[in-house]
């Protein structure tokens, strides 16, 4: 195996782990009905976060646009929407990445496609893999 093949395997493996983690969080949230389940999940999610950024929702404004208004955002476009690679000085890496939640739920769509409303609680989590 040459170096470029090893790098490709590493990148694909890391992306797969991130996607599985995101899917697992979504399944966990669906199985936890009621506010006590959401509070417990939020508490568990917080244990994985190094940094969080909280933003208030606004009517008809995307999560991504809210973030761009308040912070320097490094992102790129994908077929499914904008992918956030870094916020301010914190960039995604081998074991850390940015993910967002709205009202303690991790939506299954890109942040530029998730529209907020007044009263929503948007949190960007700088998550580390354990």
How would the global form be characterised?
A: globular
**Strand-residue proportion:** 25-35%
Fraction of helical residues: 25-40%
DSSP E strands, number: 8
Helix/strand/pairing class, anyone?
alpha+beta
Distance between the termini: 27 Å
- The quaternary organization reads as single chain
In short:
With 130 residues, this protein is of the alpha+beta class. The chain has one domain (3-128): Ferric Hydroxamate Uptake Protein, Chain A, domain 1 (Beta Complex). Helices cover 39% and strands 32% of the residues.
Give a topology summary.
Elements: H1 3-31, H2 35-48, E1 49-56, E2 61-62, H3 63-70, E3 73-78, E4 81-87, E5 90-91, E6 96-102, E7 115-116, E8 121-128
Antiparallel strand pairs: 1-8, 2-7, 3-4, 4-5, 6-8
What does this protein look like?
The chain has a single domain (3-128), classed as Ferric Hydroxamate Uptake Protein, Chain A, domain 1. The protein is built from three helices and eight strands. It has helices at 3-31, 35-48, 63-70; strands spanning 49-56, 61-62, 73-78, 81-87, 90-91, 96-102, 115-116, 121-128. A three-stranded antiparallel β-sheet has the order 1-8-6. The radius of gyration is 15 Å and the shape is globular. The two termini are 27 Å apart. The relative contact order is 0.20. Mean pLDDT is 78; it is low at 4-14 and 27-36.
């Amino acid at each position: 195996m040459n170096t470029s093949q090893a790098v490709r395997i590493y990148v694909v493996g890391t992306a797969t782990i991130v996607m599985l983690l995101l899917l697992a969080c979504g399944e966990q949230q669906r199985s936890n009905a009621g506010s006590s389940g959401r509070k417990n999940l939020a508490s568990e999610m917080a244990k994985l976060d190094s940094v969080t950024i909280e933003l208030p929702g606004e009517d008809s404004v995307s999560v991504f646009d809210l973030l761009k208004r308040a912070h320097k955002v490094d992102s790129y476009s994908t077929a499914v929407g904008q992918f956030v690679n870094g916020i301010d000085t914190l960039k995604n890496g081998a074991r850390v990445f940015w993910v967002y939640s709205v009202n303690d739920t991790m939506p299954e769509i890109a942040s530029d496609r998730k529209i907020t409303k007044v009263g929503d609680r948007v949190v960007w989590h700088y998550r580390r893999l354990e």
